[in-house]
Amino acid sequence: MIQKTIGIYSDTPSYSPFNEDTLIVEISCDHIACLVKNVETANIIAFEFFKLEVEGNDWDDIFYELRTNSGLLDKSYTASKVYYNLAENVFIPSYKFTDANANLFLTLVHGDDLKSTIFHDTIKSDVDFVNVYRVKNSLLETVNRSFLSIECHHIFTSILNTVFEDESSSRTNLLKVQFYDAYFIATVLRNGKLQLLQRFDYQNAEDVLYHLLNITERFELMAVRLQLSGFIDLQSSTYQYLQQNFADIYIDEVNAEQPISHKITSYPLHYLSPFFNLQA
User: Fold this and answer.
1) 3-state secondary structure of 71
2) CA–CA–CA angle 228, 232, 233 (5° rounding)
3) Would you give per-residue pLDDT tens digits along the chain (280 residues)?
4) Domains defined for the chain, CATH in brackets
5) In angstroms, how far apart are the furthest CA atoms of the chain?
């Protein structure tokens, strides 16, 4: 049901019930990532990654097993930030956003679901749309029982805040790709303007190349920087295909100068970027 594949901890576990560390949790249907961020330094001082098998399993059972296997969730934290890496979201123009329209747009795109709760995020940058998403009630109830002082967001909100915060994004065409085990999230900025933010499923290297070349053709990205992070092996055929088709490739790595730097360097640093860069 659940398998811990990465566990990185500070030698001096300051993530205790008696400080103001923030717990950050990313929840997807195939993984859960847990991080602890020191409030004073903004450094990540612990990280765990779990693979999940959600189908046929109850979220309460998954979280029980998660707590049993985690070295972080047996403690209390001053604040908890939960990021939902879920497929059911839609962007709505700000002037059209209402609770009724949020439900209408989600239903039009993803179908009706009476057993979910709808949320929305605003973006830090000066954009004219709202990120609307929904979470299954079974998952939401488990999350609310599991954490204190919860602040929740959708992962697309975090991605947008990150790319708009980077001033270089306004000076170049950007195709940002975050890889997970069976899907990737692609973000396209053209002349600093958002063109696309979408999840794509894949099974092999050919699928990845097809989707990315189709994106470049669709948005006429004659010159584009391809920014890669997440679970892509730089020795794989996927990366070789990308090298053959993209002239400007940037590997987004986490800053190794952190309290757990001597431990995170045992992993490819770009593996950790999608999680270490989470922000609301």
Assistant:
1) coil
2) 125
3) 899 999 999 876 555 555 578 999 999 999 999 999 988 888 899 999 999 987 777 999 999 999 999 999 988 888 899 999 999 999 999 999 999 999 999 999 999 999 999 999 999 877 889 999 999 999 999 999 999 889 999 999 999 999 988 776 667 899 999 999 999 999 999 988 899 999 999 999 999 999 999 999 999 998 999 999 999 999 999 999 999 999 999 999 998 777 777 788 889 999 999 999 998 5
4) 2-77 (no CATH), 89-159 (no CATH), 166-276 (3.30.420.260)
5) 53
